[in-house]
Design a protein that fits this description.
It is a single chain. The protein is mainly alpha-helical. It has two domains: 1-47, Homeodomain-like (Arc Repressor Mutant, subunit A, Orthogonal Bundle), CATH 1.10.10.60; 58-200, Tetracycline Repressor, domain 2 (Orthogonal Bundle), CATH 1.10.357. It has eleven helices and no strands. It has helices at 3-23, 29-36, 40-46, 50-57, 59-74, 78-95, 97-102, 111-133, 145-160, 167-179, 193-204. Helix 1 packs across helix 2, helix 6 packs antiparallel against helix 8 and helix 6 packs antiparallel against helix 10. The chain starts with a helix and ends with a helix.
Length: 205
Amino acid sequence: MRADAERNRERVLAAARDLFAEQGLDASTNEIARRAGVGVATLFRRFPTRDDLVGAVFADRMSAYVTATDEALADPDPWHGFCGYIERVCRMQADDRGFADVLTLTFPTANALEDDRNRAAEALGVLLDRAKESGQLRQDFTHQDVPLILMANAGVVTATRNAAPDAWKRLVGFLIQAFAAEAAQPLPEPPTPRQMYRALMRLSD
């Protein structure tokens, strides 16, 4: 890649990263190109689809998400690891509105991003099993409950970002207490994996 083309690519990524963090993934490609100081055609030469752009912008964030899951799994206390994972990922959402969106959507053509998501999902499944086996996580907690948590937190982060930026911490505190086995009461059935995938796809549209 020529030096000027590489500079343009980095300018587009920097502009997209800033705008996604400020506005979420609704930020327009026209605005991204304008802030980067390039034409829209240049943006699309570098990133032919929105999934390509999102995948490039959030590659490091998704890698950090995988790391958060791996480190939670390495915690010798399964409950502490689980709670730490929930708090850490929700904080990542609070720190970056765009990433809050990424964690509640799916991007079928952003292969590297989705590969990282799948790696994290596999580790998360083991983390949940360990926390249940320890007797500390309620037995009816399922893998499908995690995107529900992230959707709820993303909504709180968006609604309170300017007026009460730490409000998400209270939500997460309430949720973690509700996840404890000692607090368990009967709940409605969780969504199926297929239903959650369809929900994530619909949000991506």
